[in-house]
Amino acid sequence: MVSDLHDAAANNDVAAVRRLLAAGAPVDGRNLAGATSLLVATHANSIAAAEALIAAGADVNAKDSIQDSPYLYAGARGRLEILKLALAHGADLKSVNRFGGTALIPAAERGHVETVRLLTEAGVAVDHINRLGWTALLEAIILSDGGPAHQQIVRLLLDAGANVNLADHDGVTPLAHARQRGYRAIAQILTAAGAR
């Protein structure tokens, strides 16, 4: 029954999700990877199924074997509608992924502008440092192409109070990283915000 619920979640089959739950399928039952049906729905961006599962009490913070939860994965992958549902149903803003990063850090790295906006407005710590020694601001520079989406993310992070001079573990500042990569627009944004 658990695998059927996972299949229904992956296929966004809301009728099947509801039928299986009514028949006693555990809402947070796990597959071999430790994923709940809500995490499977999040992977597939099955919004309606995710909504049905959350309405039935699915845990938005339940982590799989690689430390992803529906909330963290939705943030990292820009699954905006599921992220909104997770935030409205008890997402743990302090939870971290296997790299020690909050949902905000990979969202910033991957250029998910609206996700970054939503997470900063929700109150995710903008200066959280992951195991690599990087903040969301550093990842938005180091692991980006420096283009318009990442420029907007840098602005959003600074507007949310990110420390413009918080360096990585090697003492390299966001401005130094931007200059090394030739990201002039980002360097200008940082400089205007007091970067050294």
Automatic annotation (TrEMBL):
| Gene3D superfamilies linked | Ankyrin repeat-containing domain
The stretches annotated as ANK repeats are 1-32, 33-65, 99-131, 132-169, 170-196
Annotated keywords = ANK repeat, Repeat
PROSITE patterns, per database record: ANK_REP_REGION, ANK_REPEAT
SUPFAM superfamilies annotated for this entry? Ankyrin repeat
Its protein name is Ankyrin repeat domain-containing protein
